[in-house]
């Protein structure tokens, strides 16, 4: 199974305030913006491309969303690192076979059609990782 960095999720209080750094300093381009109202997600997302790298700026849409809780506990900054895999179901099984645990309630398909799940940070020395795949991969 190949693992390729897909994007880095950055928790921000305000996408509007954060975007100028990514656009003006890093010379990125805003590729997409969308909102997820899925219970347990509740986030505005801005997808920024910078020289072949993708950042997702994550702004909470309510005080109880996971991103809002993250910002309260750890502050703004890197929320997760996402790895793209060819077959998400196989990647999940391979990781489970190695003793990796998942945040089971995070398995979903997002607004851009990406299937994803987060690994339990207890299995990764505290770092939140996402595994994802796209339709047609």
TrEMBL record:
The keyword Phosphoprotein does not apply. The keyword Metal-binding applies. Keywords: Metal-binding. CDD domains: MMCE (cd07249). InterPro entries: Glyas_Bleomycin-R_OHBP_Dase, MeMalonyl-CoA_epimerase, MMCE/EMCE_epimerase, VOC_core. Residues 4-134 form the VOC domain. It comes from the Bacteria. Belongs to the methylmalonyl-CoA epimerase family. This is VOC family protein. It comes from Sporosarcina aquimarina.
């Amino acid at each position: 199974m190949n693992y390729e960095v897909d994007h880095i999720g950055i928790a921000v209080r305000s996408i509007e305030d954060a975007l100028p750094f990514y656009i003006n300093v890093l010379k990125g381009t805003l590729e997409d913006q969308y909102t997820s109202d899925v219970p347990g997600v509740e986030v505005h997302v801005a997808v920024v491309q910078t020289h072949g790298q993708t950042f997702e700026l994550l702004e909470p849409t309510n005080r109880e969303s996971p991103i809002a809780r993250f910002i309260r506990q750890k502050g703004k900054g890197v929320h997760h690192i996402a790895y793209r895999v060819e077959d998400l179901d196989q990647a999940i099984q391979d990781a489970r076979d190695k003793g990796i645990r998942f945040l089971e309630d995070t398995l979903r398909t997002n607004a851009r059609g990406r299937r994803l799940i987060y690994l339990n940070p207890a299995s990764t020395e505290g770092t939140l990782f996402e595994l994802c795949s796209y339709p047609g991969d």
